[in-house]
Amino acid sequence: MADLAIAVNNLDFAYAQLNAPARPVLHDVTLNLPKGSRCLLVGANGAGKSTLLQILAGKRLTRSNAKVLGNDVFFKTPDGVTYLGTEWASNPVVRSDLEVAHFLDSVGGYRYKERRDRLLDILDVDLAWHMHEVSDGERRRVQIVSGLMAPWDLLLLDEVTVDLDVLVRSRLLAFLAEETQTRGATIVYASHIFDGMDSWPTHLCHIQLGSTVAPSPLSWPLTGAQGEDEAVPAEVRERMMDPDRSGSRLLELAVHWLEIDKKMRIEKEIREGGKQKRGATGAANGVVTDSEAFYRKYDYSH
């Protein structure tokens, strides 16, 4: 247990709702990660990846028995945990006429000058920028500099590289890998972008409809260990390992997992009933929404 950065077993979580039953989001989640690992969370939109990261960061109070760096996060989120999510960029403060140099100093950049300066170079950030004038991608770079300046032991990333160009993203991922190798820091990273990622993670965690799929985590690259056949069927492994194939093996596996997830979600919705399927409603078969019927009635364009 002392060698684990994250120890989560049989975690359940539901959002409380006023005058309604709690809405389950996570069920039977298991994720035990050794220190120094880099784990990619893989799952469809709405699978629960962000909620899990928020629980690990101490942002969702729940008696989850989730241990982070040896501490139960419900009672005490330990020092050395850094969480970076996409919601930061919508904060009106960071969209105001605020100079980047002043902003970074206000969050303690002067205390970590060496790391700050290295990150400024890696992320190509100009200290003279004004936050209300920069692009979304440039604003995201400032967020990452501010979040990574102080040394961290566990980094939780929720889609924060989505706005970065490919060069900056590549340099950032190399820096993060170096942090895990030289300092024994640990990273859990939720992303839907797998380009150039084949050699980056040490583990994968597949979250399917709010639950982790065994083995969790799955060691990467694949080693042939017990349990891998369940996560990676023979036909998928054969396609991944074909020496004549092109493209990402990691992407091949992620697409396979997401296809299964979609099929299971549809089966679940049919089984539970009372929920309209996603996508087209089937107007060709006589299914017309109330809004469509209303606007057709007063449509004089034809």
From TrEMBL:
UniProt keyword Kinase, yes or no: no
For whether the record's keyword set contains ATP-binding, the answer is yes
Query: Domain ABC transporter spans what residues?
Result: 6-234
InterPro entries per record = AAA+_ATPase, ABC_transporter-like_ATP-bd, P-loop_NTPase
Q: What domain of life does the UniProt record list for this protein's source?
A: Eukaryota
UniProt keywords (A-Z) are:
ATP-binding, Nucleotide-binding
| PROSITE patterns according to UniProt | ABC_TRANSPORTER_2
Where in the sequence is the signal peptide annotated? none
- Any GO molecular function: ATP binding
**Official protein name in the record:** CCR4-NOT complex subunit CAF16
